[in-house]
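I had to read the description of the data format several times before I understood it. Each protein is reduced to its one-letter sequence and a matching series of backbone shape codes. The format is easy to grasp once an entry is in front of the reader. For illustration, here is how one protein appears when written out as sequence plus structure tokens:
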Amino acid sequence: MNVWPGNAYPLGATYDGSGTNFSIFSDVAERVELCLFDEEGNETRYALPEVDSLYWHGYLPGVGPGQRYAYRVHGPWDPAQGHRCYAEKLLMDPYAKAMERCICWDDALFPHADNPDAPPDTGDSAPYLPKSVVIDPAFDWQGDTPPGHLLHESIIYEVHVKGLTARHPEVPEELRGTYLGLVEPPLLEHLARLGVTAVELLPVHLHVDDRHLVEQGLDNYWGYNSIGFFAPHHDYATQGHAPGEEVNEFREMVRRLHAAGIEVILDVVYNHTAEGNHLGPILSMKGIANAAYYHLVHDDPRYYMDYTGTGNSLHMGRSNSLQLVMDSLRYWVLEMHVDGFRFDLAATLARELHEVDRLAPFFDIIHQDPVLNGTKLIAEPWDVGEGGYQVGRFPPQWSEWNGKYRDAIRDHWRAEGSVLGELARRFVGSPDLYENTGRRPHASVNYVTSHDGFTLHDLVTYNEKHNEANPGGNESGTDDNRSWNCGVEGETDDSEINALRSRQKRNFLTTLMLSQGIPMLLGGDEIGRTQGGNNDAYCQDNEISWYDWEHVDEGLLDYAARLIRFRKEHPAFRRRNWFYGRTLRGEGAEDVGWYRPDGSEMSQEDWDTGYARALQVYLSGQGVGRDEQGRPLTDNDFLVLFNASDGAIDYAVPKRKNLHRWERVIDTNDPDLWGAADQPVLGVGEEVTVEAHSMVVLQHER
């Protein structure tokens, strides 16, 4: 077969209906071979005939979708200078749109046993490395359009593609744990009943199951070990699918979610790859252009800077690393129709030399990119390196996982830790973190639980982690539960303790859904999902992590759905702008007020006193925003009453001008309150009892 010169761009394998263009970047290669494989694994090599501006490329007529391929890069093996080319190691295409199967671990995938200065192992890695696959870019989107939910109206549901349906009895067995299973009618009905506006999928980029996990019968279930930034992970496709068909199955999932009004946000891991440190495997970029892609130790480039705890860090200060990530992001928006991204350990992406640089090129390029600057951008605003905790310091256009919100809400309801003022700041959108950065309350993605930690059920059930099924026994995961759990660990038949735990779940959910900012609900929390106390289930692809649909807490699910509906009905809880805490123009009333249980205003001394757990928050229904036509929105006024103490407290309605008819609409001690028609009307100074460890919402209709 003759290889034509082809084109340098686009990178990767591009099928045009007659043949496929192949292009790969390497700034150190002396020769690059394209390797084609048939179904039996037989290899045919073709030297790429052209190199333009460090892009090696060629065009093969007649080569089309389903073709398996990889590369061999001939170049320097000189770890002391940061170069790790070795042609005996077959290499995945960093721009591959699909991969054929999982990796088969073998010593041939590694450069050497344990000595970074030793010559490379001579074993051929081809039999063990997954092959990249040429795809057909065509897909019938059937007029798909993104739902386009406004940020401040978003409600995010964090979910694992496989875990959601692996045990669902109403999903056909062949679709369980797949992209298509996620959009089966029972799941779409569940998401519609719940009322979320977006699913945030744990990583779906092609990832590698770590060798040490595989050898223990486990795998990297969460998927935070990417090796292909363009390829959807094939294990979530249906069994027996044709090579590359997982791409269209992913697209079909997105299309059906959009048709149901639900956006798709991807949890993406661009901060590192599965190639690990200097002793890690040579799978792709390490053997193509090691120093151009990775952060290397400045004075000894044999070694990798590790800001992620995984062995390496991708270097966004290098133009080709930056291009790789930007091309990947644009691909998922343009060709896969996703609506946004949550960036894992995003502080790493801001590191140029060593320090975290808020104005790093990565952010500048995203902000001016016409494809990406309209997507939802969410940062996990930290990494594990020095100076890596960057909550509140990301640029405009970015929202952030607010770890301070999580800690403050947990502290409040367990009646330990932070003072009352911390609860207040987090409840109104964390203005201390975001207001002075030019951002609005939706910069704060609020959450109480996430994939990384206890589920909501386990948070109020276990005193300690129970990660005995993990490698190394119970050593993995954080030791701090940061919960309130009645002093009794584990499941119990004690009805009083179980009632208190149920109330705590409602407290967490109610606080979350009534806080300013974007609420994120951990998938399964609404049905009472448990992991048996495992707060680090990253490697548990089994019933520890899979959602148990046979034992759904219907009462909790119904409460969560009504709570989300309540948030949607009342813009007072999802304001676009900040509270001012001052007189509104022409109204003579503040937009937010803070009161003691006796109805008097909070003083500075009250805010500073120890760990008080009782507070009234007044929220005005005026000035909450504008509708799509730009007309001012007006809502009812609300009083939110918090009581995290051990005893019931009588709260007196505070005196406010023209506000003297209040009704109780939410009571976490009385989950059946919604819809009750016999609620007493409360006037100024009249009292409502808030039971221990519960909260009440009063509404004043305008």
